[in-house]
């Protein structure tokens, strides 16, 4: 799972932008406020992790989100999300009980 890849805020921002639509490097660079080489480095890492693909259109390269790996991460996290929801529900109940005792 590409958690180390997703740990970088700039890469998460790239994925957020690609979720909206495919982008070229120059557009991503503009939105991120990074240099072109910096943006390209992040895109290369995202491609290697299988989170992004590149589509060539004449002389342009369009970067697109690959949602499947993110769906796999989401599926893996589902039981943990349930665990946290249960724990937070118990905490909420406990806090409500404390308020009632006052």
From TrEMBL:
Annotated InterPro entries: ArsR-like_HTH, HTH_ArsR_DNA-bd_dom, HTH_MetalResp_TranReg, WH-like_DNA-bd_sf, WH_DNA-bd_sf
Q: Which UniProt keywords apply?
A: DNA-binding, Transcription, Transcription regulation
Q: Which PROSITE patterns match?
A: HTH_ARSR_2
Molecular function terms from GO:
DNA binding; DNA-binding transcription factor activity
- Name all HTH arsR-type domain ranges: 1-85
Name of protein: Transcriptional regulator
Q: Which organism is it from?
A: Nonomuraea aridisoli
Give the lineage: Bacteria, Bacillati, Actinomycetota, Actinomycetes, Streptosporangiales
